[in-house]
Structure formats: structure tokens, C-alpha cells
Design brief:
Order of helices and strands: EEEHEEEHHHHHHEHEEHEEEEHHE
Shape: globular
Strand order of the largest sheet: 1-5-4-13-12-11-10
Number of helices: 11
Largest sheet: 7 strands, antiparallel
Distance between the termini: 36 Å
Number of strands: 14
Strand content: 15-25%
Radius of gyration: 19 Å
Helix content: 25-40%
Amino acid sequence: MAVRCSFILLSILFFTGHSFGQELQVNHARVDSVIHFTQTTGANRALIMHNATILAEFEDTSCDSVYMNTASMVKSWTGLAVGLLVDRGYVENENREVCEFLPEWKSGCRHGVTIRHLLTMSSGLEKIRPASASILAQDDMNAFALRQKNTSEPGSSFSYSNEGVQLLGLLIERASGMRAGDFFQKYLFEPLQMDSTSLYVDRSGNDIVYGGAKTTVEDASRIGQLMLNEGIFRGERVISRDWIKKSTTPSAAADNYGYLWWLSPTHQQTNMANYAAMGDFGQMTLVLPEKELVYVRQQSCNNSDHSKNLYWMGLEFIEMVGNIITH
């Protein structure tokens, strides 16, 4: 296997963290450990950044895949797109009922499902198994999502749903009057200069917002930087700080999930959680605010069932990345 590892060492060993005003130190041996672990778990590319500075990057050059399929990592981007709907006045707030925009979703209308319910995976939608019967296999994913029924009370429990996120994509279109892909492009991708990113479409031409966008590690890292800087990218406000806070705050239905972002347990001293956009095969954008770190991982060539299970992803891995920076 041909591997290229680039360690871009800072010209000074110590620097001051912008948010915390504390002296921070990069432990390059631990950077090396994270890159090695990334390689051994099947990734073909990875990027580690501290405050927009690249600390290290890794590439398996035998994997001929510049672009990454985000898988469900794009769900977190959809959460940001809904925030942009609110910020720009297309939707008053996330407490509005989905029925106001999708009246043909009969079950959602009967049960009073709100936008917040869909954002927090607590809409009560039926869990569809196997995958061959789910939205993944459908020619018209929007039509399929609109046929889905609620089997539990909205807000009562967490239940992961691709169909619920696809309904948010359709809601974005109804509220904005734009195709979902055009909305993402205008309000999210262009402001972040994500020139190599686009949504995929299903066989009926619907933009897919629950999984499988096309991007690169570099473009995905800009989402991480946006989150790290609480909605600001390169000095410009892209999305409100309030929405970033809501996105990374545990919901009533699950203490490890916000507005389509996965959350890790809150750090006891700083009261600041780490969070991630994640998808099958280990596609990941991990943000550690306390350490001002962004870690992006791509896996495009080694997609066995074993690696798909993300068996290595947990608190120990998050701590491994976080330990790159010490106070």
C-alpha cells in the first residue's frame, strides 16, 4: 500500500488558544499516533487542523478516490441548512409544524410533528427494516418519505430515520422556493468556498439530503471550521451562533444527539461537548472545541462490513485526538 503522510509542523511549539486564552502545546508524537491509527482502521485520507492550520494529513495513494461519499455525514449539513432557513426568515422557527409546509404528509399532520422533531430524530416515524425496504432502495425518495407513518408519539423517544431527514430536504424546498441542492449551494457551500461539493440525486431527480453527498476532505473540513468558530468562516458570519449552540446541545430525546449532530459526553471542567458529523464506513468530521481541533476522515476503498460498523469510534478515540493538544 502506497502511503503519503505529511506532517506540517508549526514554526513555534507554543501558541495561545483564541477561545480559552491558555498556553497550548502540540504533541507531535500523539499526532503521529492518530495518523497511524487512522491508517490502520481503513481510512484512505485524513486531515487534522487546529484553528484552520493543518497539523497533519494522511493519504493512501493506492486508493484512487479524490472525492468522498459523505454517507450520513451530510445529515449534519442538512441541520445547518434548516438553521439557514430560520436565520433568513424562510421559516419562523423550528417549532413550526411540518404540516404547514408538507400538508400531503398525512401522518405527520395528524401527529403534529414539528421541524424540531425531525432535527432531533424524535418524530416517531416507523423504523423500516431491512434496508432493501427503506428509502435507500426507492426511485422517488421524496414520495416514499411522504408515505411514512408515525408509530410513536413525537418527542417521546429517539429513533434514527433517513426518511425523516429527507422530509427536511423537501421542507427546505417548499419554504425557500429553491431546489434543496441550490439552497445548499447558495447559502452553505458557496460561503464556505466548498467548490468540490454537491448533493446527489435519486433516480427521479430529487436531491438527497440524508446521505451520500459528494465532497472532499478539504471541503468537509470547512464545515468543521464553521462549527468551531460558532458560525463564522474567515471573518464572515454564515449562520447564527444561536443555531450552532442548538445544534450541539443534547435534545430531550437523546443526550448524545443535537440537531442532526452526534454529541459526546460533556467535559466536566469546561462544560463543552465534542461533536461530530458521521456516516457509514467512518466518514467523519469531528470537532473538539476545547482543543480547537477539527479531524476529518475519509474511507472510500476499504469498505468491508467490519469497518462499516465503526467499531473503533468511541470515547477512547475522541480522547486520542484531543490529547494532541495539551495545556
